[in-house]
Specification:
This protein is α+β, with helices and mostly antiparallel strands. It has 32 helices and 17 strands. A hairpin with a 2-residue loop joins strand 1 and strand 2. The radius of gyration is 29 Å and the shape is globular.
């Protein structure tokens, strides 16, 4: 039986979709017995940001959300998740865990349709197989990676398909499809401006070329108008209404008569509605980033930029760049060659340049962008395979050639997937602490921890936080960093100040000068200082704190130990000048080699037993304190302190239950995090323990 072209297309889409989903289930198979990754019998997600959208979906389903809790109940991801969870007979945890696998696999549809549009259906199929599981695309859409990335590439690839068909067929329906895809993409991912504008720019260049060649440009001018109206900086429903009205007018034959007027009107409305503003803002965030940001007008303060510590926003090696796009450097280079050949044979494929360009931005501005180049370069290598196979003199040889080379380009990606064993964000014991805290804290209370843990804290404990994955600019991180890395008295005061100032700002008019200032700037001026350093010093003295409006809890996890040096960066600087302070000494070792003379902690750090000195490189320093911590059978922490040299500044801490040695200076030793988490040595006038476990310790602020 011979299948029609439509049936062939549907069959190939089904096969590619199934393949993409099944490969993502490898992780489930690998960790099926890992109870540490489950809570209430279900797998937890493995991306921090996912808990943000999960919180919104949860609140939509429960109908409970309060002012200023920052729950994203109006975000597309949360709305769609809530709808799916309401329809399907699965638990909410199952829905958010498996959603990425199924929705991201929809990418195969536009890729196969693009292949069909250029008369290369088999190339579209090969490209869909590769793109669906490509290294970086898999990393950001695997099971549990519940985030906007699950559709972030699907939408622009559909947009690329729509534009290709619009240019090729000049059918009016593709004008509507293109506009609706832009509106839907913007709703799903508000940061889509730059990519939409790049597509618009390419079409504009093509129209100018047609104009010079004296070709008919009415259809493509109308396409530009539809795109511009869809891209305006107005509410989605307004843009939707304008596009529908314009399409109805088009069907009535009223548009082509006034094409130039409509184009002019669309451009004017785009700029008047602020359509270009977000494009510039997005470029500034990822491309033109600086390590120190200056904020404020009347009190200019310098803060450390979080972008300097986010791995996905940093430069990456070429091999990593190539692997993330195609799975292997050779595959990547052949994909580029294939795309050049594809674009030469089918000029309309030049429309894929914005996706490639954004993907290539990853080479200098962060690995997260590589996923954008995946679908177009997958089409490049697939076209190359398809074209070369056409030289075979029999169908058997042709399909054998395509099959072998398809397996070769898939193999490195599948190998990566098998080895890419990403853990869940939190483990079971950590979540159990937050679940218990949910029954203790009120929804208006704050649980303060480092920003990496903000979203999971909000989701599981149903409380407020000072910082999270979307609120972690330097001015927000400074107080939290200060709290975690300073002595208890200063930290406790800053804790109460920052929470109360944060809440007070919610009630302010956005045009109020106090609202525009950072919390630290307002604190400095309110306490009568013009120099923030003087205000910081005053925290050591008696001072009147704001009235308490809610309880505050400190969230101190063991996992923060590994990022403690990064945490210190945000408060270890002079806010008035931006000058960075001397980094405190911090070294952690989980692998120790012992001999008769010394303990070797690795990387040139040794503890000499006889002299009680610590060797760091070529320098020896006496040890001030040698501390051993251990838990008894009842789960109670004990601390043994040996004072070796009171005049020294370096301390060695052996956390026996963790098999972990720390070499830290007095600054780190006396910090709130180490005193409360490592030693449980809390000031009873300032804090009281709420939940104490080896992995997480929660304290309540008393002032």
């Amino acid at each position: 039986m011979t299948l029609t072209r439509n049936k062939q297309t549907l069959l190939l889409i089904l096969i590619a979709f199934t393949f993409s989903v099944v490969v993502r289930l490898i992780w489930v198979y690998q960790f099926s017995d890992m109870e540490q990754f489950k809570f209430n019998g279900q797998f937890m997600i493995n991306t921090n940001d996912g808990y943000f959208y999960a919180e919104g979906a949860r609140d939509i389903l429960s109908g409970v959300s309060q002012e200023n809790d920052l729950s994203p109940i109006s975000s597309a991801t949360s709305i769609i998740t809530a709808a799916i969870a309401k329809i399907l007979p699965f638990s909410f945890e199952v829905v958010i865990f498996y959603m990425p696998a199924f929705l991201s696999s929809l990418l195969v549809i536009p890729i196969i349709l693009i292949g069909r549009s250029i008369g290369k259906l088999e190339a579209g199929f090969i490209a869909a197989l590769l793109a669906g599981i490509a290294w970086s695309y898999y990393n950001r859409t695997m099971v549990g990676y519940y985030d906007t990335d699950l559709l972030n590439i699907v939408f622009p690839t559909f947009l690329l398909w729509s534009l290709i068909w619009a240019i090729q067929t000049k059918e009016e329906k593709y004008l509507l499809f293109t506009a609706m895809e832009i509106i839907a993409y913007r709703w799903w991912y508000p940061q889509s401006y730059s990519l939409e504008f790049a597509f618009f720019g390419l079409i504009l260049v093509y129209v100018l070329y047609q104009y010079i060649k004296k070709h008919d440009i009415d259809y493509n001018l109308t396409l530009l108008s539809f795109m511009m109206f869809a891209m305006m900086g107005l509410d989605g429903w307004i843009r939707f209404t304008i596009v529908v009205v314009l399409f109805l007018a088009l069907k009535k034959g009223l548009v082509y008569k006034y094409t130039y007027y409509i184009v002019a009107a669309s451009l004017l409305m785009f700029f008047l509605s602020g359509g270009f503003d977000p494009i510039w803002a997005q470029l500034k965030g990822y491309v033109f980033k600086d390590s120190i940001l200056v904020m404020g007008e009347d009190l200019k303060l310098h803060y450390f930029s979080v972008m300097q510590t986010v791995r996905e926003a940093g430069q990456i090696p070429f091999e990593t760049f190539a692997n993330r796009i195609s799975g292997h450097t050779l595959t990547f280079l052949l994909s580029l060659a294939g795309y050049v050949w594809l674009s030469y044979k089918h000029r309309v494929m030049l429309l894929g340049l914005p996706l490639i360009g954004l993907g290539f931005l990853a080479y200098s501005s962060g690995l997260r962008f590589t996923i954008y180049a995946v679908p177009v370069l997958a089409l490049g290598i697939a076209f190359l395979i398809s074209e070369l196979s056409s030289y075979a003199n029999t169908n058997l040889k042709k399909y054998a050639f395509m099959g072998v080379f398809t397996l070769l380009i898939l193999a490195p990606n599948i190998s990566h997937i098998i080895e890419y064993k990403v853990p869940t964000v939190f483990n079971k014991q950590e979540v159990e602490v937050l679940d218990r805290l949910k029954g203790i804290a009120d929804r208006e209370d704050y649980v303060v921890g480092w920003w990496d843990y903000g979203y999971p804290i909000r989701y599981y404990a149903d409380v407020k936080t000072l910082s999270d994955g979307g609120k972690h600019e330097g001015s927000v991180n400074f107080p939290t960093s200060f709290i975690l890395t300073q002595p208890q008295i200063q930290a406790a005061k800053m804790l109460r100040l920052d929470v109360e100032y944060t809440e007070a700002k919610f009630a302010m008019d956005t045009n109020d000068s106090r609202h525009k200032r950072t919390n630290i700037a307002n604190m400095t001026l309110d306490y009568g200082f013009r120099d923030t350093n003087d205000f910081i010093t005053s925290l050591q003295l008696d001072m009147k704190l704001p009235a308490k409006t809610r309880d505050i809890y400190l969230y101190l996890p063991n996992r923060m130990m590994s990022i403690y040096p990064t945490v210190t960066l945000f408060s270890n600087l002079d806010l008035m000048t931006g000058a960075k302070g001397k980094q405190p000494f911090f070294y952690v070792s989980n692998s120790v080699q012992e001999s008769k003379e010394y303990l070797d902690f690795g990387r040139g750090v040794k503890l000499h037993k006889a002299s009680g000195s610590i060797e760091v490189g070529m320098q020896k320093t006496p040890v001030k304190n040698f501390v051993k911590t251990f838990y008894d059978k009842g789960g109670k922490l004990h601390t043994n302190v040996q004072v070796l040299n009171p005049n020294s500044n370096l301390n060695v801490v052996f956390m026996s239950n963790y098999n972990q040695f720390l070499v830290i200076d007095d600054t780190v030793y006396n910090s709130l995090y180490f005193q409360l988490f490592v030693f449980e040595n809390y000031d009873k006038n300032l804090f009281e323990p709420t939940l104490l476990t080896p992995l997480v310790k929660v304290y309540k602020l008393k002032i």
